Amino acid sequence: MVLSSLLSNSSFLSNDNSSSSYDPSKPFVVLIHGLHQSARTMSPLAAQLQSKGFSTYQHDYDSLGETLDQHSDNLHTWLVDHRDPKVPINFVGHSLGGLVVRNFITRYPQWNIGRCVTLGTPHTGSIKAKYIKDLIPPLIGKSYEQSLDGNIAPLEEDICMGVIAGDAPDNFSQIVLIYHEHQAKLAVDERAHDGAVFVYETLLPNAADHIILPVSHMEMLIDDEVAQQTAYFIRHGKFDR
What we know:
By secondary structure, this protein is an alpha/beta fold.
């Protein structure tokens, strides 16, 4: 089954048309989708986090037509209109969404940031995105420069961020990475990937914790263990080992 198709199927996602479930008595989590996706892509994970005692908001943005700075500006505008800046905000970003989180934290330090989790985010840059940019630029749009190219401001030292990587690619998404393995003559310990992002691309020097789970890039959004580890990190600042 192609997971990206499954995740975009409205019958699979929550029937609730709202992308927000806010209860001021519960920890607040902003979920940010990845490239070529929408806020609804994060609905399965949002539902799992809600069942674990969190209130959530699924932020939507134009991943191709706007820059990383614009994504952060739009998120800031929404938060100004809807949230008290004194209330801690936790973030969960999938793939490119994790870079949106990092950019937002850097550009808007006035917000009270709680804990952050990134899922399959290429913190050091995405070789797959580079191949696609060189071959079919419209499929990358404005998401590459100062973003997927790895040129993004370092994570602030006082931010508690956990990184989840996957190493179980599905059969449909890994052709580009397999090609790169051979072209770059990667060592065996560098070849693990989730079908879209190499594990080594997810490494972030000052992250609080890093864990590798047996999931593909899109499976992260519906996997029970990913949801459990995400919730655990937001509550404890480390993964459950």
